[in-house]
Structures are given as C-alpha cells and as structure tokens.
Amino acid sequence: MSLSSTPTSSLSHDEPDTAAPVPARRTIALTVPTSLLVLPASAAIVGMIIGMSRGGSRARLRFLAENAHRPPTTVQGWYFYTKTRNYRVFFAAARTGARYALGLGGATAAYVLLDESVGWTREQVFGAAQSSASTSIPAPPAVPDATDAEPGSSRRIGWREGPVRWEDGAIAGGVMGAVVGTAYRLPRPLFFRAVLIGSIMGGATSGLQIAQDHVRKLKEKDERVSVSGESGGSGLAQPVSAPVMGSAPEHPTVDRPVQAGETAMSPVQGASRALPTAAESDRLRRRAWWDPRRWVGM
C-alpha cells in the first residue's frame, strides 16, 4: 500500500471548532448586610442581661413571699430552703433572659431589615447618591468572591449602593414604633411618644453609622498615604565613600606658611590625631554615665 492511501482524520486543524459553548452556571447570591450580623446579636446580649437580672430578682422575691410564713428551723431545713431558692432563681433568670433576648434581638433584626429596605427603595425612586464617602457595597449579581474586594478594605456590606442616610433610620424607627404601639394597643399619647422615640433612636443609629464610615474612610486614607510614603522612600541610600589616604581632597586647600607656635602636620598625622587611642577609649568608657566628659569626649 502506498503512502498516499494512508487514511487521514476527518477533522482538520484549519477548520474552526464548531462545538457548542458550555453554558455558564447560574448561581443565586444572597447579600447579608453587616448591620444584620452585628446589631441583632448585640441587642440579644443586652436583652439577655436585662432579662436575667429582672427574672432572677422577681423569682427571689416571690420565693421569699411564698415561704415567709414557714421559715426553716433546722440546719437541714435551711440547706434545702437555700437550695430550692437558688434553683428557682436560676431557672427563672434563664427563662426570662432567653425571652428578652429573643424579643429584643428579633425587633432589632426587623429594624435593620426595614432600614435597608427603606434605603434601597429610596435609591430606586430618587437614585443613588454616589459620592466619595460611599461605604456600602451593593448587592453583587453573582456569588461574591473575596478576591474582588480591595485588599485591607473594611467597607460595610448592604443593600444600598450609596452612603447611609439618617432619614432611612428615622423612617424605619418610626415604623417600628407604630407597629409596637399598634400591637400593644397603646393610648394615643403613648402611641405618638413611641413613634417619636423610635424615629429619634433610628436617626441616631444611622448617624452613628455615618460617623463610623467617615472615621473608617479617614483611617484607610491615612494607611494609603503611609504605604505610598514607604514605597516611595524605600530606595537604598548610596554609601558615602571615605577618602583614600594620599588622594587629592574633594575641596582643595590653599597652602600657607606655618605660623609661630604651630608645628607642621601632614594629612596622615592629622587623621591619626583625630582618632582616640585605645587607652583614651577605655578611659572614656570607664567614666560614670553622669560625667559630662564621657559624652563630649574630653
């Protein structure tokens, strides 16, 4: 069989690849605001402390009132009396603390979600106010990657594309006050008071976030300036070479005749006279630290 009859592949390297492209995998991204991770947890801790204090104190007073007519008279009776009281106080404090933590943490989480929703709605209606003070990362269309963010950046993650506004927190706080007043059926004066207090507290919370973002921006600016200064001054200084004995000086001097009382001295002798001897160095080192002659080299 000849070489010309050798079978060749049906696909040529010059022909374009007609294979269908692999479709990109679609993912669902969920952006969790930073405030939703910080504020509810802090509120839950505060609520647990308050609930444990109130529940334990109330249980202790109730136990004392229930057993005031039958105080123990023996050592064993006092032992069981104290043991039962401590158990009741402990369980009551834990139960009340958990209830307070769940209630206050849930209310704070609802406020944070309402605040982010109000900010997102405001930007959708009036547009996002883009500025250099923007410290909120918008919701990404895909799964966020840690490599996409700036190295060392500590910006707040939220649903808003622009900066935080105090109006968002005020509106969210007012709505929460109205919901609480309606749920507890408060009288009209207390209802208006709850709405006013909620608006003030919500605006104050947003104001603190604005101040925190401003401080973070200044800190990052200072860090960038310091890093740029270090990178700009990282060049090594050129060493200064010592003059070689016998070579011409950099600044030539004018020869003059020796005056009366002076002795002729060669450059080499002058250099040797300028350096202290070993005995003089040892004498200066042995002097006390408070002796000024040690520092002036006398």
TrEMBL record:
Q: Please give the start and end residues of each transmembrane region.
A: 28-52, 190-211
Which UniProt keywords are given for this protein, alphabetically ordered? Membrane, Transmembrane, Transmembrane helix
**PANTHER family, alphabetized:** HIG1 DOMAIN-CONTAINING PROTEIN, YALI0B21208P
Q: List the biased-composition ranges (Low complexity).
A: 1-11
In terms of superkingdom, the source organism counts as: Eukaryota
- Thylakoid recorded as keyword: no
Q: What is this protein called?
A: Uncharacterized protein
Residue ranges of the region described as Disordered: 1-22, 131-159, 223-282
